[in-house]
Write a structure and sequence with these properties.
The protein is mainly alpha-helical. Helices cover about 70% and strands about 0% of the residues. The protein has a domain of about 100 residues. It is rod-shaped.
């Protein structure tokens, strides 16, 4: 299949089929690159989310373990110090639950530091803005028709824009090198 550079070398404008193929390939590349960017940003955020989840697991484990082992030890210690057994065990449970609550606060502060993938969101917005802009180009000037919008029907025979395929702002790599 001829590429942009093949058509330029031959001294002719690319056909409508070639333009559609180029646009399809470029759009596919753009979408793949957007997905890769999102994966990279989310991978960095996963570490912070993992630490936050780890704090919650530790807090839950400490809370549960505190109700079993710590309650027995401290309850008996407070009883030995002269407290009634009921109040001694209640005070022990409150102390360990306060420690678990403190760990939950640490975990929540880690989760609050998470943010959406800003670069991906911005490049997708840029791509949408790029797709919505009027195409214009040499075909519109040559045929005397106005610019065609994406998804609109051709204005008549020979009214297809026959210029080089345009790539979006986030496209880089093999398609941009051609």
């Amino acid at each position: 299949m001829p590429t942009r550079t093949d058509s330029s070398r031959a001294g002719r404008e690319p056909t409508l089929g070639e333009l559609v193929a180029l646009a399809t390939r470029d759009m596919s590349l753009l979408i793949r690159q957007e997905i890769e960017l999102a994966k990279a940003e989310l991978a960095r955020q996963a570490v912070s989310a993992g630490l936050g989840a780890g704090f919650l697991v530790v807090a839950a484990g400490l809370g549960f373990g505190a109700l079993i082992a710590g309650t027995i030890f401290l309850g008996e210690l407070f009883t030995w110090a002269g407290m009634e057994r009921f109040w001694a065990y209640l005070l022990t449970a409150v102390l360990y639950l306060a420690l678990a609550g403190l760990l939950v606060v640490f975990a929540l502060t880690r989760f609050k530091k998470l943010s959406p993938p800003e670069r991906t969101i911005q490049t997708v917005r840029d791509d949408i803005a790029w797709l919505r802009r009027p195409t214009g180009g040499s075909g519109a000037a040559r045929t005397g028709h106005g610019t065609a919008e994406v998804g609109s029907a051709p204005a008549g025979p020979g009214s297809a824009v026959a210029g080089p395929a345009v790539t979006g702002p986030a496209v880089a790599g093999p398609a941009a090198a051609e």
